[in-house]
Amino acid sequence: MTTPGDTRPTDAPRLEDGEEIGDVIVSESDLQRRIAELGAAITADYAGRPPLLVGVLKGAFMFMSDLSRAIALPSEVDFMAVSSYGSATRTSGVVRIVKDLDVDLVDRHVLVVEDIVDSGLTLSYLQRYLLARQPASLEVCALLVKEGQQRTALDLRYVGFTIPADFVIGYGLDVAERYRNLPAIYDYRGPKS
Ligand code: IMP
Ligand code: MG
């Protein structure tokens, strides 16, 4: 709720550690416009084949929320949580399933909803894991793909934006669990020393 004394601008990040937040990489309006396009494409492609949207937590929670509302079809939503071993900003490709799906995939049209594809190792592992459960089809919708970083061949049916290979935050993406609630995608500047 806004109170009469609250005069902060609504379009600017307003978090205490704002100096870590760099340039806008994808604005809120560009995100929303592109998600509407992705939703329309998915709606057309999946007519008569209700999709099961599988979100990869935590990063994809916000994208899943907006994308699912942009798909004008009967659909279901489920989530998986994975954690990849590696440093804070680099994956090793070894993935641990922290939360598995609740539903059976046999004969389902599964659409994996991912926040960002960097090396592609996480997604590649997930695709193999999900395919073993015999879905009728398996496709991927990734909001962001980092240009030139993929270390494995991936078939990405839907991509929101291709971005430079820098670390980004916001719109579900974090650094050490922070900044997920920013409404746009920002460059991460690193802690001020
Ligand atoms: P990949 O296995 O290298 O493709 O990494 C994929 C996962 O690493 C994503 O699903 C994110 O959770 C995380 N990740 C990769 N790049 C970024 C980034 O720039 N910001 C935040 N998280 C990222
Ligand atoms: Mg992710």
What descriptive keywords fit this protein?
3 helices, single chain, 9 strands, six-stranded mixed beta sheet, binds inosinic acid, alpha/beta, binds magnesium ion, 193 residues
Task: Describe the model.
This protein has 193 residues and is of the alpha/beta class. 20% of the residues lie in helices and 30% in strands. The chain has helices spanning 28-45, 61-69, 121-131; strands at 21-26, 51-57, 76-84, 95-99, 109-117, 137-146, 158-163, 168-169, 185-188. The strands form 2 sheets. A 6-stranded mixed β-sheet has the order 4-3-2-5-6-7, with helices on both faces. A 3-stranded antiparallel β-sheet has the order 1-9-8, with helices on one face. The model has no long low-confidence stretch (mean pLDDT 89). Magnesium ion binds next to strand 5.
What's the gist of this structure?
The chain is an alpha/beta fold and 193 residues long. The chain contains 3 helices and 9 strands, in the order βαβαβββαββββ.
